[in-house]
Amino acid sequence: MKYIARVTMLIIAVLSFSKFIPQYYTKIFSERVNTPLIFYSEVLQDFILRTVDKSFNIRHFDSNGDNYTKKEYSSLLPMLFSRELKIWDKYPTDIHGKKIPVDVAIRESQFLSIYPKSIDKSERMINLYPLFDASGEYTTIQMPPDLFRINNKMEFIDATTNKINDNKSTLHTELLVDAGFKFPAKIIAGNPTTRKQYDFGYFILDSANNLYHLFSIKDKSFIRNTGVKIDENIIYITVEENRNLPNYGLIVTDNGSVYSLLKDKYRLDKISLGAYDPYNDDLKYYLNPLIVSIKIITDHNENMYISDRSGNSLASYFYEYGDTLSPFYRAVYTTVFPFRILTDGRSFAKYQEFKFSDNVFEAYLFTSLLAVIYLMYLVTIRERDKFTFVIDSIFIFTGGIYALLAILILDGIRRYKR
């Protein structure tokens, strides 16, 4: 029984240490690394950056290294800072010969962010959605009394009683069948919140990868086959209610293609961008009356792609992040810690993931050295029975410094109790 207790405590200790020791190591020895805010200046026709150094000094500069004051920086991004420039009476009358009124700049700008955890959340969330009335009869969107789901049929469930409304469910199932919908639904995309001015309904991907648009006006539901069918696996759809924008939102596929779903006959506009892994990279989308900006952010760098509103490429920019650990501390980190347990920031549920060292061979050479030294110590003091000797040997050879610390602490407690 004592062996089972010892093994259990050692396993718990090794797992705990592999979670927290590397985490605190990086907090102690890491340095601040600049991750600049990068935009494309329609005035300069160049990229402009904003950084904050270790002393929290803010610097604004372009790709040539020329510095600007905060107000100059704002003036170089008139679409982004249109409200401020209007207050300062500094909004330009034209930008490279194009007249963009300030109210148009404000009204026709769009920011969208797509994170891996957003995609993960969409795959894990409970598939119950409110079907709002889009007639605009009230000053605010009203929450309906029921929620719908689409599996082998469309069902409406009363939110108070949890009972299925058979008549309403049958009616909507028939609407979908008549439109050619193939059950079940793969994706149901919309904004299930009343905190919005308008409602565009839901975009629903059926099992045959056809995209449908479902919405309700004056308690009457409509379903349209958009005609959109992409020969790729769609994994995520954004919907943003804004009547001033030309699109409903973005469509993302598993191989990294991104499409803008236009309001004009549900046409698709494929966005030009470089390598993008939607399960690991962040994507920032910025649209204004002049340009479309796409930024892809990885753990180590960011790529930015600029095109005009017609899709013609204008510029691109690459920025590589520095390492938060110096070369020495990074070498220690990858050698001393053979593995670690991390919180998966790409998972909405914040799952824990097991990850080996980037230099796993060197890490286990170090681990083996620790094991040999400790075993020599055990042979010298001769305080171990054979079974405990074997257990400790296995733990140190596999768990490295975590196991060694766990054993030293456990033995220290044992000796103290004597």
Task: Explain what this protein looks like in three dimensions.
This protein has 418 residues and is α+β, with helices and mostly antiparallel strands. The chain folds into 3 domains: 89 residues, no CATH class; 70 residues, no CATH class; 177 residues, no CATH class. It contains 9 helices and 21 strands. The strands form 6 sheets. The protein has a 5-stranded antiparallel sheet. A 4-stranded antiparallel sheet has the order 1-2-3-4. Strand 13 and strand 14 form a beta hairpin. Helix 1 packs across helix 9 and helix 8 crosses helix 9. The protein is flat. The model has no long low-confidence stretch (mean pLDDT 88).
Summarize the structure.
This protein has 418 residues and is an alpha+beta fold. It has helices at residues 2-29, 70-75, 82-88, 102-107, 116-124, 166-178, 327-336, 360-381, 386-417; strands at 37-41, 46-52, 58-62, 67-68, 110-114, 146-150, 154-158, 185-189, 202-206, 211-217, 220-225, 234-237, 247-253, 258-262, 268-270, 282-287, 291-297, 301-308, 313-320, 339-343, 352-356. The model has no long low-confidence stretch (mean pLDDT 88).
What's the multimeric state?
single chain
**Secondary structure: number of strands:** 21
For the terminal residues, how far apart are their CA atoms? 19 Å
Strand content: 25-35%
Coarse structural class:
alpha+beta
How many domain units? 3
Rg from Cα? 29 Å
Strand order of the largest sheet: 5-16-17-18-19
Q: What average pLDDT do the residues reach?
A: 88
Order of helices and strands: HEEEEHHHEHEEHEEEEEEEEEEEEHEEHH
Specify the number of helices: 9
Helix coverage percent: 25-40%
Shape: flat
Uncertain runs: none
Biggest sheet, in brief?
5 strands, antiparallel
